[in-house]
């Protein structure tokens, strides 16, 4: 149906490797109705001995393949020279990689080089979980009057052990969406996962969160890929993934659904009011205890009490089928606020 939201789907190999590889993947993706191809030409590899990308030669292949298939090409640019070359060979859209978004000097240089160029510019999140760098890169591109600016969520680097190559930290892209509601937000499940086994799961989650599309790495023979081979899908796996994805709509006009939703939201509003009232009552007690501690020269923080709160609340939570870590997280925040209130009380001069 035409009024239904259809996600943007960009797919293609991590890197251009040969004319044959590129031709083959474009032919296979075009058969799956994909009309926007991603392909890395200059690769930001961590180590100097890894494959660094083909460079300008690959832009010539792209130019030739564009004469054969009605598709658009997107590539990563990291320097003004990359932009000049990409535009020269008719690249249709460019993206800023995660290692570029971290650096406002580079982003500004690229924004200058793209000033007034009306092609879409896609901006990956910075490697580190710093929302303001991502916002800043979007603003710099918008100020340069490029074509449409889009954001790509590719996860964040972390030293912690995780099943993903880059931890998603979903709250960061969702906050970005509240700041730029009209900037399309795409997910890059390939660089989040680092593993083809999780691509469907991550993309589905993003779509359930109302993302506007995805950018997925697809290679004719993933096991032979020169970069990111563990995370690239074969065209068959990609077709299977597309068939499995459930596309939900952000709203529904079904009256039964709308009424039920309103009723349930009314109950949630009531419970939230009670939660806020309970927190207010708790903090009033915290304040009272603070006064006693002050009068009796007792420290604000007592380790045994904190341990007791932390463990009993987690046990209560588990009995009520709530996630223990979630409740402990909430109690850390509540306890932090309690300490702040009491520290303020004990540091105040006694009023007579
Ligand atoms: C890429 O898209 O191939 C890439 C290098 O991405 P990122 O900048 O997200 O690491
Ligand atoms: Mn890659």
Structure description:
- There is one protein chain.
- The protein has two domains: 237 residues, Aldolase class I (TIM Barrel, Alpha-Beta Barrel), CATH 3.20.20; 97 residues, Chorismate Mutase Domain, subunit A, CATH 1.20.59.10.
- The chain is 50% helix and 10% strand.
- The N and C termini lie far apart (73 Å).
- Bound molecules: phosphoenolpyruvate and manganese (II) ion (MN).
- Manganese (II) ion (MN) binds next to loops.
List keywords for this structure.
TIM Barrel, 2 domains, binds phosphoenolpyruvate, 352 residues, 8 strands, elongated, Chorismate Mutase Domain, subunit A, binds manganese (II) ion
Number of discrete domains = 2
Tell me about the largest β-sheet.
Answer: 8 strands, parallel
Morphology call: elongated
Unreliable residue runs: none
Describe the oligomeric state of these chains in a short phrase.
Answer: single chain
Return Rg in Å.
26 Å
The computed structural class is alpha/beta
Give the tally of β-strands.
Answer: 8
Order of helices and strands: EHEHEHEHHEHEHEHHEHHHH
Looking at the overall shape, the CATH architecture of the largest domain is Alpha-Beta Barrel
- CATH fold assignment of the largest domain: TIM Barrel
Give the helix proportion (percent range).
40-55%
């Amino acid at each position: 149906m035409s009024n239904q939201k259809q996600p943007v789907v960009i797919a293609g190999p991590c890197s251009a490797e040969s004319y044959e590889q590129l031709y083959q993947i474009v032919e296979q993706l075009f058969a799956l109705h994909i009309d926007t191809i991603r392909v890395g030409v200059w690769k930001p590899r961590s180590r100097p001995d890894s494959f660094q990308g083909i460079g300008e030669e690959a832009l010539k292949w792209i130019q030739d393949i564009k004469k054969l298939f009605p598709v658009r090409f997107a590539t990563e640019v990291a320097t003004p020279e990359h932009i000049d070359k990409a535009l020269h060979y008719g690249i249709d859209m460019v993206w800023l990689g995660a290692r570029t978004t971290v650096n406002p000097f580079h982003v500004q240089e690229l924004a200058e080089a793209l000033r007034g160029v009306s092609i879409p510019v896609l901006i990956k999140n910075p490697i580190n979980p710093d929302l303001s760098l991502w916002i800043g890169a979007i603003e710099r591109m918008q100020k340069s009057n490029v074509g449409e600016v889009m954001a790509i969520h590719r996860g964040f680097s972390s030293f912690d052990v995780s099943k993903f190559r880059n931890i998603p930290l979903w709250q960061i892209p969702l906050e970005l969406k509240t700041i730029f509601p009209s900037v399309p937000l795409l997910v890059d499940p390939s660089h989040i996962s680092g593993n083809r086994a999780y691509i469907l799961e991550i993309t589905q989650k993003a779509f359930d969160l109302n993302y506007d599309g995805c950018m997925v790495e697809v290679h004719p023979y993933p096991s032979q890929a020169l970069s990111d081979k563990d995370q690239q899908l074969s065209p068959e796996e990609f077709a299977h993934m597309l068939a499995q994805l459930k596309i939900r709509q952000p709203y529904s006009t079904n009256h039964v659904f709308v009424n039920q939703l309103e009723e349930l939201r009314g109950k949630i509003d009531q419970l939230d009011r009670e939660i806020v009232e309970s927190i207010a009552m708790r903090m009033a007690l915290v304040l009272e205890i603070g006064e006693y501690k002050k009068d009796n020269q007792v420290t604000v923080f007592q380790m045994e009490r904190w341990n007791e709160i932390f463990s009993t609340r987690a046990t209560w939570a588990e009995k009520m089928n709530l996630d223990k870590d979630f409740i402990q997280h909430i109690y850390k925040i509540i306890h932090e606020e309690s300490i702040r209130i009491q520290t303020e009380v004990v540091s105040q001069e006694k009023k007579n």
